[in-house]
Design goal:
By secondary structure, this protein is α+β, with helices and mostly antiparallel strands. The protein has one domain: Aminoglycoside 3'-phosphotransferase, Chain: A, domain 2 (Alpha-Beta Complex), CATH 3.90.1200.10. Helix content is 45%, strand content 16%. The strands form 4 sheets. Strands 1-2-3-5-4 form a 5-stranded antiparallel β-sheet, with helices on both faces. The chain has a two-stranded antiparallel ribbon with strand order 6-7.
């Protein structure tokens, strides 16, 4: 987007905050930082996911367990949030984040696949559409609304052969046995890869760009591992200790199920970007099964 989009970002800030932004600069292809009169900045993001993102941020932020940007407005096209200045990773922030994430997950959700309150069923994960549909079990939800739609898309694009697709299908068929002991639905960020773990200048880790829903807490932990979150061992050690202290320790074998929970994001990347992600998806499916 060029200058016109920056002007539109200023218009969106005027509409939702009732003030004239001083200046807007582009942070991403459709994301702008807008400076406000008297100091302070907000982020104005133009996205089809605006309604889902706003609902997710509010739901995840409500209990105060983990820092997330406050939402100042959303109209289905633009979402206006706090700007959080970036900082450097630190052990203290990593450990606090791990403890907070454990508490957030334990806040629960109405069902596996439930969208955030007020959020649409048809949501997004990054650039990809994502359906939030309440289901009785995590295995049913994960197969029907996460893995299988993207497997069909990847197969239709010729990214998997029939035999390769069958490897992933076999995992879906065995999900009730592979998923570990039953757990209640957790309140998930849903897209907690390293790029959405924002180390802030004022200390706490902020989660951004959620794909929030009711799910399995091991999914967020697997996402943290997928693309190399800094200080991950400190985050996970603090998480597991906090979960155990709360009387809800992670089930035995959770580290062995990382590949299972990474199937969905890897399939999303396969359908969007192709390339080596198809091979990574197959490796994850084989490790899961």
């Amino acid at each position: 987007m060029g200058t016109g989009a920056a002007v539109t970002a200023l218009d969106a800030v005027r509409e939702h905050l009732g003030v004239e932004g001083v200046h807007a600069y582009r942070l991403g292809s459709s994301v702008f930082v807008v400076s406000l009169p008297g100091g302070g900045q907000v982020v104005a993001k133009h996205t089809e996911a605006a309604a889902a993102e706003a609902a997710g941020l509010r739901w995840l932020r409500e209990p105060g367990d983990v820092a997330l940007p406050a939402v100042h407005g959303n109209d289905g096209e633009w979402v206006i949030t706090d700007y959080v200045a970036p900082g450097a990773p630190s052990v203290a922030a990593a450990e606090a984040f791990g403890r907070g994430l454990a508490a957030l997950h334990l806040r629960g959700a109405p069902a596996f696949g439930a969208p955030p309150p007020g959020g649409p069923a048809d949501a997004w994960i990054g650039l990809a559409p994502m359906r939030n549909e309440p289901c009785a079990t995590w295995a049913e939800f994960y197969a029907a609304h996460r893995v299988e739609p993207y497997l069909r898309s990847a197969r239709d694009q010729g990214l998997f052969t029939a035999d390769q697709a069958a490897v992933v299908t076999a995992v879906c068929d065995r999900l009730p046995d592979l998923a570990g002991p039953p757990e209640p639905p957790a309140r998930l960020h849903g897209d907690a890869w390293s790029g959405n773990v924002h180390w802030s200048a004022d200390g706490p880790v902020h989660l951004i760009d959620p794909a929030a829903h009711g799910g399995h807490r091991e999914t967020d932990l697997a996402m943290l591992r997928l693309f190399g979150t800094p200080l991950l061992d400190h985050i996970l050690d603090a998480y597991t200790s906090a979960a155990a202290d709360a009387g809800a320790p992670l089930a035995d074998g959770w580290r062995d199920r990382v590949g299972l929970h990474q199937l969905f994001p890897l399939l999303v990347h396969t359908t969007l970007f192709g390339g080596g992600y198809a091979a990574q998806t197959l490796a994850a499916a084989r490790s899961a099964g």
